[in-house]
Design a protein that fits this description.
Blueprint (H helix, E strand, L loop, with lengths): L2 H16 L4 H12 L6 H31 L17 H18 L1 H4 L6 H21 L11 H13 L7 H11 L4 H22 L1 H7 L3 H28 L2 H21 L1
Helix pairs in contact: 1-2, 1-3, 1-11, 3-9, 3-10, 3-11, 4-7, 4-9, 6-8, 6-12, 7-8, 8-9, 9-11
């Protein structure tokens, strides 16, 4: 492992965690395609902490408002009020988190073994990308985060559980489901990004002992910082981009990557 490998994988993790292109698929495919050395579990934990830093830094004001809505009678004078969240948004985020936690707990071994096939990843990249494209193009997206319901949240949470399969994409699955429920592009992306915080924190905390035993070195630090920087800017610019352009570009990217994976797989066979 070199500093160059650390930075590249960190940039890949940070961007792909929040763009609907599957971070787990990219972290499997990048070493496979470019023959990078296996970075190890401690490095994976460091990258998760990097993306957690990104989402917390970008949304900390939102989280203040969300907790004020949940535990105070009124927040009209809150200096952090920047979004029109409904009063129950915290509880809806909790509902949506539970299926992902259960999937991670019961299917962790499968995610680390049988779900890592390049051909399976190519299939899920293309199919989920196509569904996202069609839903974005043909569904009506009018609801905002004040209008989201507990049932919307449950369905988004169930889709997040499916994203344990590399290539599905946590953000891709949750955004697609939010769009099918009539949420606007910006609202469903924002809900997906907020939902990532507890999932990323849980995944990182679960494997924290590996990082402690390994110790932070320059390689882990470089990967974590590059993941934090790329993740922050991925969130910032995606929220602006999708309102005008939609999600079609991500479908074409996923399809192109799936084709590259299939060609590489059979040429190496």
């Amino acid at each position: 492992m070199t500093i160059f490998h650390s930075i590249i994988l960190g940039l890949v993790q940070g961007a792909s965690e929040f763009l609907p292109i599957s971070s787990s698929a990219h972290l499997i495919l990048a070493p496979w395609l470019f023959r990078f050395p296996d970075p190890g579990l401690a490095f994976d934990v460091a990258l998760h902490f990097g993306t957690l830093i990104a989402v917390v830094l970008y949304f900390w004001r939102d989280w203040v408002e969300i907790f004020e809505l949940a535990f105070k009678n009124k927040i009209q004078n809150s200096k952090f009020k920047i979004q029109n969240y409904g009063r129950n948004i915290l509880y809806f985020l909790i509902i949506a988190t539970i299926p992902g936690v259960l999937a991670g707990y019961f299917l962790e071994s499968e995610a680390e073994t049988i779900f890592r096939s390049p051909i399976l990843i190519a299939f899920t990249l293309s199919i989920v990308g196509l569904i996202l494209y069609l839903v974005d193009k043909y569904h009506r997206h009018r609801k905002n985060l004040q209008q989201i319901s507990w049932f919307d949240s449950l369905l988004i949470g169930l889709s997040q559980a499916v994203a344990i399969i590399p290539g599905v994409s946590r953000s891709g699955a949750t955004i697609t489901t939010g769009l099918t429920r009539g949420l606007s592009r910006e609202s469903t992306a924002r809900f997906s990004f907020l939902l990532s915080a507890p999932i990323i924190f849980g995944a990182a905390a679960l494997k924290l002992p590996h990082l402690i035993r390994s110790g932070m070195d320059i390689y882990l630090t470089a990967g974590m910082l590059s993941a934090a920087v790329s993740g922050y800017f991925a969130i910032k610019y995606l929220l602006k981009f999708i309102e005008k352009a939609g999600y079609a570009v991500f479908f074409w990217y996923r399809l192109a990557l799936a084709l590259i994976v299939v060609l590489a797989y059979f040429f190496r066979a």
